[in-house]
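Postdoc handover notes: sequence design on the structure in folder B. Input tokens:
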């Protein structure tokens, strides 16, 4: 009788642990499969790989890229759908390198803006009309 109770208790804990793991993985997988609102357009140039992104509602996405060879960070804000020019910006800063920003009225994208910041933490953000990414940090 003791053995049956112990086995039941262990099984219950395993089910809770597995169930909790699945519950945590579900939303992340769903978010990854959706992808960013806008597609990265390669504006930062050869060698730059997207390392982070942030959507602004359904208006578009700001992308942070990094070039491993040069140590260069780049930010570009891309609209989901091109149209009449609207206010947009892309901004990148680090404590040692200062701040680089491109802003104005654009039909497709703002940026790219670059900073050499190998091994530093950078803050990046972008905006389209009244929406913005609210400043996001990345260290690397």
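Designed sequence:
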């Amino acid at each position: 009788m003791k053995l049956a109770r112990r086995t039941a208790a262990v099984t219950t804990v395993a089910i809770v642990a597995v169930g909790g793991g699945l519950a945590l993985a579900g939303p992340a997988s769903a978010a990854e499969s959706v992808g960013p609102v806008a597609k990265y357009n390669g504006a930062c140039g050869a060698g730059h790989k997207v390392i982070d992104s942030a959507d602004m509602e359904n208006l578009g996405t700001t992308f942070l890229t990094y070039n491993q060879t040069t140590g260069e960070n780049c930010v570009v804000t891309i609209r989901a759908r091109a149209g009449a020019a609207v206010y947009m910006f892309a901004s990148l800063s680090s404590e040692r390198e200062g701040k680089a920003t491109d802003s104005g009225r654009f039909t497709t994208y703002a940026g790219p803006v670059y900073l050499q910041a190998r091994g530093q933490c950078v803050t990046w953000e972008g905006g389209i009309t009244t929406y913005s990414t609210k400043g996001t940090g990345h260290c690397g």
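Context for whoever picks this up: The first strand starts at residue 48 and ends at 56. Don't rerun without checking with the PI first.
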